[in-house]
Amino acid sequence: MRVQQQPAFILHQRHYSETSLLLDAFTPNYGRIGLIAKGARRPRSRLQGILRPFQPLLIGWSGRGELAVLTGAETEGPDFAIDRQALYCGFYMNELLMRLLHRHDPHEALYTCYRSSLSALRADKTNEAILRVFEKHLLREIGYGLVLDHDIGDNSAIRADALYDYIPERGPVRVANPDLNTRHKGIRLRGASLLALANETLDDLTTLREAKNLMRTILTRHLGDKPLYSRRLFYATTAPTVAGIERKVNT
Question: pLDDT tens for residues 36-56?
Answer without folding.
Answer: 999 999 999 999 889 999 999
